[in-house]
Amino acid sequence: IHAREDVTGQHTNKETFARAAAAALHGGVVHVADMPNNPAAPIDDASYAAKEMLVRRANLSVTFTLYAGIGPGTKPLGRNVPYKAYMGPSVGDLFFTSLEQLDETLALYRGRNVSFHCEDPILLERHKTAPLHELRRPPECELSATRFALAMIEKHQLSGKLCHYSVGEGLPLIRAAKKRLNVGQDSTPVESGQERSPVPRLTVEVTPQHVFFDTAQITPTNRPWLQMNPPIRSPADRTAMLEALRDGTADYLATDHAPHSMEEKQHGHSGMPQLDTYGPFVAWLLHAQHFKPERITELCCANPGRFVAPYQQEKFGRLLPGYVGSLTVLDLAKPVTIRREDLKTKCGWSPFEGLTFPGSVAAVWVRGEQVG
Question: Cα(54)–Cα(66) distance, rounded to whole angstroms?
Fold first, then answer.
């Protein structure tokens, strides 16, 4: 997610940790991982600790795992944290202007857990004058960056994650890389009750928005609201992402929650709020797309829990002894219509407004206590 509450206190229009937590619980989410592209980015021990202190002071029910940022000139922290690398421009200046520059920096992060935003900065620059957002960030930008990220994961012995993946043509590259990098990984189904091996060397996220929306649905009216990076793709790409979630190529259903205000969206900001609607969207996968419940628990619980465990010193995402007792109950017989007045996110809007999902969040428990 991108809460973007800032240690400087200057960006008061942005989502606070408290509002992000409220939106998360409303959507049935009990644990979030917050990205580092803040105006004052957490890139060293001091700035990371300052952001950590903000979360602690908020005294939230939802658990926050914080990413540290990788940018030109950064070095690993003195503690075990997950990292995020932005290949192309984002909020703030935490991005690289060339892939070679990123390679030089990643050499310092050997063996660390690094998540990648896969868009080639050189190709983005080449297409920047195209008339539409999706043409300014075409699939070739993501494909080029995918090849590079996979090479970096292998070269620098990283545990790598490709964030918010969106291009169907890149999936064969990912499947081939997984066969090379994830050798010996345990594939025991979560329902067996057995323990799982550590996080695989290569994992992949897909967002709700990239499996629900495609370019055929974009109109002049909704275009500002559906703008994100990487952009909404073709119908074929949307179908490919849905199947990647189904067949195990994708490991996580991740929100990429980016709650820009309505005014900001009208001025070209990229990103959508997704926390409030996560549980209802999962119900849509179960009902309309016929996902098996076991697959949902992999995507939404077990795999994310396995990702965050090393940084929290606790076990999350499974109903087993020794795990944190946080869970969500969905009522698959109680539809919910997404209404602006029900949303908890500070931005106050959703791309799903007016849509009725076939199920809803019935109850949420956090550490053994019902909170919703």
Answer: 11
Amino acid at 289: Q
Strand pairing category for 336-337 and 327-331:
unpaired
DSSP one-letter string for 262-313: HHHHHTT---B--STTHHHHHHHHHHTS---HHHHHIIIIIHHHHHHHHHHT
Kind and range of the H or E element at 100? helix 99-106
β-pair type (31-34, 252-253): unpaired
Please provide residue 184's backbone torsions phi and psi, each rounded to the nearest 5 degrees.
85, 5
Look at residue 270 and tell me whether its pLDDT is greater than 80.
yes
pLDDT of residue 89: 60
Q: Which residues contact 260 (CB under 8 A, 6 or more apart)?
A: 269, 270, 271, 347
- In this structure, what token pair is assigned to residue 97? 């202007």
Give me the amino acid identity at 151: A
Interatomic CA distance for residues 63 and 24, integer angstroms: 10
pLDDT above 90 covers a percentage of the chain that reads: 84
For residue 340, give both structure tokens: 């602006």
Q: What is the pLDDT of residues 68-116, one digit of tens each?
A: 999 988 999 999 999 999 886 655 567 787 888 899 999 999 999 999 9
Residues 65-75 as b or e (16 or more Cβ within 10 Å = b): bbbbbbbeebe
Query: Is-contact 30 326, C-beta < 8 A?
Result: yes
Alpha-carbon distance of 203 to 46, in angstroms, equals 29
Contact 47, 78 (CB under 8 A): no
Cβ-proximal residues to 105 (8 Å cutoff; 6+ apart), any chain: 70, 71, 72, 73, 74, 85, 96
Long-range contacts (CB closer than 8 Å, 24 or more residues apart) made by 183-191? 189/294, 190/294, 190/297, 190/298, 190/301, 190/302, 190/318, 191/294, 191/297
Report d(CA 188, CA 162) in Å as an integer. Answer: 23
DSSP result, 170-216: GHHHHHHHHHHHSTT-----GGG----PSPPSEEEEE-HHHHH--GG
